[in-house]
Amino acid sequence: MYKKIKSILVIGLVGVFFLSGCCLINNYQNKGSLGIEGLKEKVRVVRDEKGMAYIYAANTHDALMAQGFVTAQDRLFQMQLTRLFAEGRISELAGEQAKNLDIRMHTIGFLRHAQEHAAILNDETLAFFQAYLDGVNTYIRTHKDEWPTEFKIAGIKPEPWDITDSLAILYYMGWDSSANLTTEIISEMLIEKIGIDRAQEISPVNINPDDKTISKSRPYPDHAPALGINAGREILSFLQPGHLNIGSNNWATSGTMAIDGKPILANDPHLETSLIPGQWYPCGIITPGSRAVGVVIPGIPGMVIGRTNNIAMGVTNAYGDTQDLYVEKIDPSDKDRYMEGDKSIPFGIIEETLKIKDKDMPSGFREEAITIRTTNRGPVVSGILPDLTTDKVISLRWSAFETMSPSIGIEKLFCAKDVYGARDALKEINMIILNFVFADTSGNIGWYVSGRIPVRSGGGIIPYEVKDSIDNWQGWIPLEEMPQAINPARQWLGTCNHKTVPADYPYYYSNHFSASDRYQRLKQLMDTPGKKSVDDHFMFQRDTMNLTAKRLSPIMAASLMNYEDTQGLGAILNTWTFRDDPDLAAPAVFQAVFQAFAQETFADELGDDLSGIMLSDWYYWKERLCIMACEGDSPWFDNVNTKDTCETMDDTIHTAGLKASAMLEERMGKNPEKWEWGRIHQLCMVNALRREGIGKGILGGGSHPMGGSGATLYRSIYEFNEPFKVWVTASLRMVADLGDDTKVLAVLPGGVSGRLFDPHYKDQTEAFMEGEKMYWWLSDEEIKRHQEHVLVLNPM
Fold first, then answer.
1. Residue 732 and residue 751 in contact, taking contact as beta carbons nearer than 8 Å
2. What is the pLDDT of residue 4?
3. Alpha carbon distances (Å) from 140 to 12, 128, 304, 375, 750
């Protein structure tokens, strides 16, 4: 489930599974009847051929309670891991090696603020969550004999759930959708290394293709705070992105563009997909007044992505900047106080305790106290990791902790009847910044950005130096002025993590966005004449056209053809149609040369460490480098280490070509005719219990050659510093036709169940990889036709 615990959560050997003798008996009751205390009326749970549960309940309370129950049946171990992670408790499972991770989570304080938030929730929101949690806890309490075998292997037990657990997960999701802090830190490190003017030359370029305007990030201030490169590296380590860092594509078209005259909505959220079970749990919820099929993160009730009898909705990361870093000043006469101008203020102190797995202790655990310092802006995040020190005191601020409201918004979104109701519900979702696209059966389509973004007098681009007690956050962007649209004239709308606000938007929104290539390609497909079917939209989600390559590959090919030792690479690129298909050599050549080209361009002046940090954030530099290459005359192409020569872009591409060729030959042999993108660009699906070594394939979902890249709608992202292993791709592909009240096209990369060896643990993987269509069933007739098992839950 989590990229961060890649080197932490390796638990036991595969032999343990087989020696236990019970790993193959890892199932639960899915037919017959059960008595459930707390239900008001009888509930039917119908499971289809995919193992997906469709809940028939007489009221919303019972439907949500049953949702919690069946989610626990399928995903209880995953839920426990998610909770441990969000609450800073992974060291209970992994021991000392996870301690720094837990300190980080405690310092940010997802659970601490969840507890604070729970105290102010209104009755409607409390009831919505509590019904779900009652279902989860009923399963934990009454079905110990069915607990997933994974608990025995991990040596832990499931614990009762409280609303604070669900809120902590929501806060963690919100945190990972606000990634601008990395941009702030990299910008500051660049300024310190090469100065403001040169740093501005390679600052992020953000393009809104609908605006026809290229805008750089906001100008750096004349005097940036001296954060320190070591401090920047430390804070980056503290603020590592997580497994719920959402990318994605979503779009909706009006009925005028559809064959059946009704809106169509498509969504493929991009998350870490290398771990199974996947992030999303699918379920159907049917009551006399509503009908819904869709997905949600296990541990959260309702539905976030999917289709009801009234609306369809999907999400992408909107990347609104809701987080800032502050350089605090210590009182020179008292290290326990900090300064705001002439005012000396004592640090707030929070004492918390870690519980760390320790086999040498009689209880199996030891406790370790930690102290968290806070300022008026938030927790101090510098000096947290023991291996890294700095003389700067850096605090962290996040809008979600300052905009708590009695409603979470999810409960109202679940009940929305049209796009206007959906928009109103989204205005109450403060803790996460997402592009919600939605459509309704009346023919309307809409888009709204959830969350609250501060109106700043300064900051947001680099860490903000505290010089007085004046708050640089002066309020919030008004809800009515958040980015949004309903029924645009062009008859469609969509987002691909790109810059969506226009050049004349009156507020600073963010300077961290995806490159514009995916959205440019979406525009091409949407603007193609003719009405489009559900199948067309599904194919768009798997489209491999790389518009970045279309811009740069001819430039690369021309340069490579100028040199005898790289002419072969140039020839491969010359015949390419710019599709990142897995059976072609050209995508491998382009990606390898582009990666080496970026390194050759920046590493000589920035150094290996800083260039590695910057290049690991594709959003920071990719659009900028594309523009530099198209212009062709940037001084950054000169290698400063060769004093007697002045390298041109051709020289840099040639050097990159030689390095790329050596890399590709090492991985695929010397014959380029046998090179294939899919041989080195693969998605390896593993289980968190066994990420490496013997048994990885048995417990996981295997390795799969993939087309696409970070630049295509068929997105398959690899880390720059770990090419070309795919770790982020679509965690779901869904296309909902508002004119079809029988089904929704949807496929997961794994399966419904999170239980090892369950038949529905990874049974959708082949369809997902091969582009085969699967469906969620919406109508009673289709649910009955695909019925495999029925479980009746009776009130007690």
1. no
2. 44
3. 24, 19, 25, 40, 24
